[in-house]
Design goal:
This protein has about 500 residues and is mainly alpha-helical. It folds into 3 domains: about 180 residues, MFS general substrate transporter like domains (Growth Hormone, Chain: A), CATH 1.20.1250; about 50 residues; about 260 residues, Growth Hormone, Chain: A (Up-down Bundle). Helices cover about 75% and strands about 0% of the residues. The protein has 19 helices and no strands. α10 runs parallel beside α13 and α16 runs antiparallel to α18. The protein is globular.
């Protein structure tokens, strides 16, 4: 039942996240909203979810992972209900932000619950299934939400997700509870400085493409947020009950899997959001046809993750498999430079399937392999940090990729930033449409080559970080894992670190 309920959460939440983008035009028309206020329906959800992931995971270790999972599902459902009945855009933005906070509890503690429930090969299979289900949610979200919005309206579409949230809440009563044996005091200063700092930095960066990178609206929150995160790190080094045990960040293999998660976001996030714009703006494809084309990228995520789990369980080192996944995404992005005005689905099939297959391989093993390196006492914290990397990188990469694409277009057309932004949004006009389409294509090629180079660098770095011969006593698999699920390194009890907090050492001795 823990697996079933967790998978329901990993299906429903990504589906509502990707599906809401389809409803934005209807929401804007009904509530008289546009610009940043309308965009915050998406941005607010991403920012709050990413900012609270680590805290939700750590609180799950202390107070019970099922309890925090349940609270997250309740808050997410309440936010969706408030959004469905919102009288104006301000209320809707607040409701979506609260839903993001609730989503952090579900996503962080869901992974921790699986890590505590399953061991060895069964854990690898469970996380591979989780990756598949999350991929199904992301892939079907726009299609399902588009159909619901067209048939019922956006408010009733939100209502459908409320009903799914209630089913999720009911299912949590059948799940087993788990928590850390040692329950120290809550690290309130750490929670406050981390959430505030990360939220401010991410908010400032997401405003860069709109307000300009030198605008006070960007610089002020980034500087203040950076200062708060610095205070957070200093505090975590000194406290005996940290919300983030910094020894986790000194585990090179765990950080290798975090870097792999970042590469996974880099390889697909830009394609998922901006390629449909190109197809509709340059090729004049309908929204339906563009969505069907994108299935070439998302379909492999429905079938490949279980394959990754089976290969690891049969002895293939996960270290080699994740490098293959990153290289496939790099090859897919490089291959996509065949992109040109009038390109058909057949020519896009190869590059999109290649990138999608790499994404599916990564989704099927990153969480399981990272959790194998962490003892049971810290699975919530580790899952929260890993999901912070995933959620935060997705939010920031969308902004960075959008800003880079706009900047490249502006450099090529020699016009204003406003013109470049319109071209990046697919508004080419009729007077100079062919010229602008060519420049849009050239900018895409440059961006794709840059992404491919970064993914190649990430693959080489991850391969080095995951090298088992370079592991220390604090970087071996957690007790209960097997050689096959931990890149074939012999499992043994984790030795206490001399730099770990006192409570972590006591746990290791027990």
């Amino acid at each position: 039942m823990t697996l079933v309920v967790t998978l329901l959460g990993y299906l429903t939440l990504p589906m509502s996240m990707s599906g809401t983008t389809v409803a934005l035009p209807r929401i804007g028309a009904d509530l008289g909203a546009s610009g940043p206020a309308l965009q915050w329906v998406i941005t607010g959800y991403f920012l709050s979810a990413a900012s609270f992931m680590l805290v939700a995971g750590s609180l799950g270790d202390l107070f019970g992972r099922r309890r925090v999972f349940t609270a997250g599902a309740a808050l997410w459902s309440a936010g969706m209900l408030a959004g469905a009945t919102a009288p104006n855009i301000l209320v809707l933005d607040i409701a979506r932000t609260l839903s993001g906070v609730g989503a952090s509890g579900v996503m962080a503690c869901g992974g921790a619950l699986l890590a505590g429930t399953f061991q060895g090969a069964a854990r690898t299979r469970a996380f591979a299934t989780m990756g598949t289900i999350a991929g199904v949610g992301l892939a079907l979200g726009p299609t399902l939400s588009g159909a619901l919005v067209g048939a019922l309206g956006w408010r009733m579409t939100f209502g459908v997700f409320v009903a799914a949230g209630l089913v999720l809440l009911a299912g949590t009563t059948l799940m087993a509870e788990s928590r850390a044996e040692h329950r120290p005091r809550v690290d309130r200063p750490g929670i406050i400085t981390f959430i505030s700092g990360l939220a401010l930095v991410m908010y400032g960066l997401t405003q860069g493409s709109k307000a300009g990178w030198t605008s006070p609206l960007v610089l002020a929150p980034v500087l203040v947020g950076t200062a708060l995160l610095t205070l957070f790190v200093r505090h975590e080094r000194r406290t005996d009950h940290p919300v983030l045990d910094l020894s986790l960040l000194r585990n090179r293999r765990f950080m290798g899997w975090c870097l792999a998660a970042l590469g996974m976001s880099l390889g697909t996030s830009g394609l998922l959001v901006f390629l449909p714009t190109y197809l509709q703006g340059v090729n004049h494809a309908s929204a339906r046809d563009a969505g069907l084309t994108m299935l070439m990228l998302t379909a492999p995520v429905l079938v490949v993750p279980p394959l990754a789990g089976r290969l690891v369980n049969r002895g293939l080192p996960a270290r080699h498999l994740i490098v293959v996944a990153l290289l496939l995404m790099a090859a897919g992005n490089a291959w996509l430079t065949v992109l040109h005005p009038g390109i058909g689905p057949v020519q896009l099939l190869g590059p999109l399937l290649t990138a999608g297959a790499g994404n599916g391989l990564a989704a099927g093993m990153i969480d399981a392999q990272a959790m194998n390196l962490v003892e049971a006492e810290r699975t919530g914290m580790a899952a929260g940090f890993l999901n912070t990397v995933k959620g935060g990188s997705n939010a920031l990469l969308l902004t960075v990729v959008g800003a880079a694409l706009t900047g490249l277009i502006q450099a090529r057309v020699g016009g204003s930033a406003e013109l470049a932004a319109r071209v990046a949004a697919g508004e080419l006009g009729s007077t100079h449409g062919a010229f602008l389409a060519a420049q849009f294509t050239g900018a895409w090629h440059t961006l794709l080559w840059a992404v491919a180079a970064l993914l190649l660098t990430a693959a080489l770095t991850v391969h080095r970080l995951l090298d088992p011969s370079r592991s220390t006593s604090t970087e071996r698999p957690a007790p209960g894992t097997t050689a096959g699920t931990a890149t074939r390194t012999t499992a043994r009890p984790t030795a206490p670190s001399t730099t770990a907090p006192r409570h972590a050492t006591a746990t290791s001795h027990r």
